[in-house]
Amino acid sequence: MSSILLAIVLGAAFGAVLDRVGASNPNLINRMLNLTDLRLAKAILLAIGTGSALMFAGQMLGVVDVGHMSVKTAYAGVFLGGLMLGAGWAASGYCPGTGVVALASGRKDALFFVAGGLLGAAAYMLSYPAWKASGLLDKIAGGAVTLGTVPGSEYEGLTALPGDILGVVLGFGFVALAFALPERLVGQGRPHPAPAE
Amino acid sequence: MPVNWKVGGLLLGLVFFVAVLLVKPIGVSTQFVILDGIIGDAVNPEIVTQTGDGFTSTNAYLAKSGGKYAKSVANPLNYSFVFVLAMMLGGFLSVMARGGLDSRERRMPTLWRANFGDSAVKRYAVAFLGGFVVLYGARLAGGCTSGHMMSGMMQTALSGYIFAAGAFAAAIPVSILMFRKEA
After folding, report:
1. How far apart are CA B156 and CA B148, in angstroms?
2. Which of A195, B146, B148, B165 has the most CB atoms less than 10 A away?
3. Per-10-residue mean pLDDT for chain B, 183 residues long?
4. Which GO CC annotations does the UniProt entry carry (chain B) (predicted)?
């Protein structure tokens, strides 16, 4: 039961932050993706960096359980699926998580996105045996690996570098990138001083 | 952006960190499969069945990895499914607390309208097709923006970097081609 309580608290916090950061707003997603307003990209980079540095530093201090890590397998289909998701993300302005938050925030187009998503997921469930047989789901580069070798982790490292220290360093790298990235790469002027809602 | 990127990014990073600290990394797209399974199993109860020590399914995807998805379909009140329902609650409360969206924006995004006009049918058709491609791709990849890109790269997972490379390699050109007018 306590896990359900955690799901409610953490899920609600995630949904609220996605709304406040603007990730469930298709205007901000496409201003990021068409490179005219990168402030959302800066927020995402800062988030990845903050999460990474805190998690790995916490592991080194012994306050974060290494067993809570969940590393996904690398295979060719990850890239192919990423391409598909990217194209649909740009066209619709939604990804799976932000689509459900947008639906809850009253966006009517998000209802169509979620309906299409349920159908797309069902189509994959039916076509899964063909993908499995194609070999594109076979692991590459060791499969479920981290870039360095994380002490005490069940996952192997792509390199022998100390994975926890590497995680903290990369975390700071993402934070630095967030600050270094300009607010826009395409077009001129300050992007959208009064954000449209 | 409703909050500036520094505050927003820090809060978003804290949520991802606290999720790993207390439970496990955040992911969303699997729950589309679970909801499909719940709907399918309601229509045809043969789809998910109990075995001696767990669950299995007539659908190979639900049955994979020892039937873990079949188990979630049989028990919808599990952490990951409730998490996504709670995201909707949190998003709803947050948007209401800042006054809600106006009806024009609820109908379609401003940037879309500036580039493609006010036809709701056109917008909803693209949103539907986009949703189909996004979730098909996410299941093929084994995760989405939250599970692969955010949680994955945060954990220095190789798969997270491969996914992000694919996602942006498609998303940036498509967005630049589609949304030429700023709004």
Report:
1. 11
2. B148
3. 88 97 95 96 93 92 94 94 98 96 96 96 98 98 95 97 98 97 91
4. plasma membrane
Q: Which residues of B touch A19 (CB under 8 A)?
A: 2, 90-91, 94-95
**CA atoms of B160 and B147, how far apart (whole Å):** 8
- The answer to whether the Cβ–Cβ distance between A146 and B145 falls below 8 Å is no
Please state the rounded mean pLDDT for residues A96-121: 98
* Residue A109 pLDDT > 50: yes
* B55-106 tens-digit pLDDT: 999 999 999 999 999 999 999 999 999 999 999 999 999 999 999 999 999 9
Task: Report the length, in residues, of chain A.
Answer: 197
Q: B115: distance to nearest CA of chain A, Å? A: 11
- What residues in A contact B138, CB-CB < 8 Å? 81, 85, 95-96, 121
Q: Which helix (H) or strand (E) holds B96?
A: helix B79-97
Amino acid residing at A172? F
Whole-complex ipTM: 0.96
Compute the distance between CA of residue A52 and CA of residue B151 in angstroms, rounded to an integer. 9
User: Please, which residues 8-37 of chain A have a Cβ atom closer than 8 Å to chain B?
Assistant: 8-28, 30-31, 33-36
CA-based Rg of chain B, rounded to a whole angstrom?
Answer: 19
Contacts of B162 (CB under 8 A, 6+ apart): A74, A78, A79, A82
- What is the mean predicted confidence (pLDDT) over A123-144? 96
- Asked if B148 and A135 touch (Cβ cutoff 8 Å), the reply is no
Tokens 């097709």 label which residue? B129
Cα B37 from Cα B72, distance rounded (Å): 9
